[in-house]
Amino acid sequence: MEQDRYLTFLNDINDGKPNNFVNKDTECPFCDRKSLENIIDTEGPFIILKNKYPTIKDTCQLVIIESYECDTNMSKYSDEYMIELIRFSIKHWLEIEKSNKYKSVIFYKNHGPRSGGSLKHPHMQIVGIDNIDYKESLREDNFEGISIYESEGCSINLSTKPFNGFSEFNIIMSDTLDAIEEFSCIVKKVVTYVLNDYFVKCDSFNLFFYHMDKRIICKVFPRFVTSPLNLGYGIRQISDSAEDIADDLKKLYFTDYKK
């Protein structure tokens, strides 16, 4: 049933949730590490813990704090830092998935005021969902597109059948994780492109990770105000400059790239 595709948002819990995009005077809870509770694991600057504000019913919500610093983002991480972050995060995501406690487990990141996030401090989220399998809504062609770079371990393309329209970048590797170092560095390159060199100014993005058909896929979304055609009618748009965008990313970040 279509109703089974909905999750219930818990407004009472959300009322107490800090948001320093809306209120710039809000203290960042992730900066005050001594006050953090329900920590599951730590590794250097990385912490995974239970979300203090679990706003979605019938889920288990976890947060991965990426950095000691509040005013930073993935584009500023060193390659080594990015690799360790992605390794730490994917390890926990797949472990929760393997536990079989949930119908599916999603792993994603919000960054910026248009991303759907509430805190500026760099973090990602893992959510175990009791009653929904996210893979049921996916189509293979959502991850196909204009090739930008390909090696034995990884590939990246610009989607020609995006979920929500315009530009979505797909980074793909095997779930053996043999190419996780290259995969991590490519995700960082795409994020850097989106925040600094995209054809229009962009200060927000999402990362969405998928585990399907023995592959790990990261889809990078530049984020803007959602198209009213998509919101009201489910009509998606694609850019007439897709080839130019793919070529621009290739020239700027992959012309001399060697893993």
Topology:
Blueprint: H1 11-15, E1 39-43, E2 46-50, E3 59-65, H2 79-98, E4 104-111, E5 123-129, E6 145-150, E7 154-159, E8 169-174, H3 180-196, E9 205-212, E10 215-222, H4 228-233, H5 242-254
Antiparallel strand pairs: 1-2, 2-3, 3-5, 4-5, 4-9, 6-7, 7-8, 8-10, 9-10
Which labels suit this protein?
about 260 residues, alpha+beta, HIT family, subunit A, 2 domains, 10-stranded antiparallel beta sheet, 5 helices, about 25% helix, about 25% strand, globular, DUF4931_C, transferase, nucleotidyltransferase activity, Galactose-1-phosphate uridylyltransferase
Q: Would you tell me the overall average pLDDT?
A: 93
Q: Count up the domains.
A: 2
User: Compute the gyration radius: what is it?
Assistant: 18 Å
Look at the structure and give the CATH class of the largest domain. Answer: Alpha Beta
- Range of strand content: 25-35%
Q: Determine the number of helices (DSSP H or I, runs of at least 4 residues).
A: 5
Q: Enter the CATH topology name of the largest domain.
A: HIT family, subunit A
Per DSSP E runs of 2 or more residues, the count of β-strands stands at 10
Largest pleated sheet:
10 strands, antiparallel
| Spatial arrangement of strands, main beta sheet | 1-2-3-5-4-9-10-8-7-6
Fourth CATH level, the homologous superfamily of the largest domain: HIT-like
Class inferred from helices and paired strands: alpha+beta
Termini separation (Å)? 45 Å
Overall description:
With 259 residues, the protein is of the alpha+beta class. The chain has two domains: 11-135, HIT-like (HIT family, subunit A), CATH 3.30.428.10; 139-254, 2-Layer Sandwich (HIT family, subunit A). The protein is built from five helices and ten strands. It has helices at 11-15, 79-98, 180-196, 228-233, 242-254, and strands at 39-43, 46-50, 59-65, 104-111, 123-129, 145-150, 154-159, 169-174, 205-212, 215-222. A ten-stranded antiparallel β-sheet has the order 1-2-3-5-4-9-10-8-7-6, with helices on one face. A hairpin with an 8-residue loop joins β2 (46-50) and β3. The N and C termini lie far apart (45 Å). The relative contact order is 0.14. It comes from Clostridium carnis. Residues 9-132, 136-254 form the DUF4931 domain. InterPro entries: DUF4931, DUF4931_C, GalT_short, HIT-like_sf. GO terms for molecular function: nucleotidyltransferase activity.
